[in-house]
Write a structure and sequence with these properties.
Layout: E1 11-18, H1 27-52, E2 57-64, E3 82-83, H2 86-98, H3 117-131, H4 160-169, E4 172-178, H5 184-191, H6 203-206, H7 209-217, E5 221-226
Parallel strand pairs: 1-2, 1-4, 4-5
Antiparallel strand pairs: 2-3
Pfam families: Treslin_N
Protein name: Treslin N-terminal domain-containing protein
InterPro entries: Treslin, Treslin_N
């Protein structure tokens, strides 16, 4: 006799946070920005917790530096989902603040000024998709754990209905927390290209097909939280 197991519907959230600081003119402006970032993340967590149940929300975070370039590694410990509790958020706040201590800062002259910020974002998202177990089931489910992408269909992609279900459910979500380009000048700086070299369609430069395929395979929805000041 076959027994059907039903796993608890979990909502997995990961915040990929840019800790680049050098463009801020003062420690006060940086502190204001950081407070807004922490409050925004807390607001999102509480929204999911109240909407779906705190026991059904798991979350995590990664830190990276936008100016570090393609070869930079993510500067964060751990890659496990955490329960949505007061203690886990306190731990996050402490680690977040530690990223801006003097000992962790890098002088502008030591950074690669010509490195692509877009490459840093892509690398951070890619590592996040690989590090976290997005398809980990609840203990009541007989499914096996796997860090590998799900097997695709014959066409090499998820079926249209499967992809739509993934996007509509939003059970796996990555939030990039960084400055978002708002103008042509911002976009040129983000991509590290000259004005004459900017293509008509920059989609592939911002989100390459290989990375988009990973998002689809892992059934992860990508959002961007812009931390740029409205006064800039």
């Amino acid at each position: 006799m076959d027994i059907a197991f039903k796993s608890m519907a979990l909502h997995n959230l990961v915040f990929v946070i840019d800790v680049d600081y050098e463009d801020y003119e003062s420690d006060h402006r940086l502190e204001v920005r950081n407070n807004f970032v922490k409050r925004g993340i807390l607001y999102i967590l509480l929204h999911y917790g109240y909407k779906y149940g705190f026991e059904k929300v798991r979350w995590g975070y990664k830190f990276y530096q936008a100016r570090a370039g393609r070869n930079a590694s993510i500067i964060s410990r751990g890659s496990d989902f955490k329960e949505l509790r007061h203690k886990t958020f306190e731990d996050f706040e402490q680690e977040f603040e530690a990223r801006f201590d003097a000992k962790d800062k890098v002088c502008p002259s030591q950074q690669k000024q010509q490195s692509s910020k877009s490459a840093s974002v892509q690398n951070a998202v890619r590592e996040t998709l690989l590090d976290f177990q997005w398809d980990r089931p609840d203990i009541t489910s007989p499914a096996k754990l796997s860090l590998r992408p799900r097997k695709s269909s014959r066409a090499g992609k998820l079926g249209l209905s499967q992809e739509n279900d993934s996007l509509s459910s939003g059970r796996n979500v990555v939030f990039v927390v960084s400055r978002c380009p708002r103008s042509r000048a911002h976009l040129l700086d983000f991509l590290s290209v000259k004005d004459d070299d900017l293509p008509a369609d920059v989609t592939e430069y911002i989100l390459p097909k290989s990375l988009n395929d990973m998002l689809v395979q892992q059934q992860v929805v990508l959002h961007w939280i812009d931390t740029r000041s409205h006064f800039e």
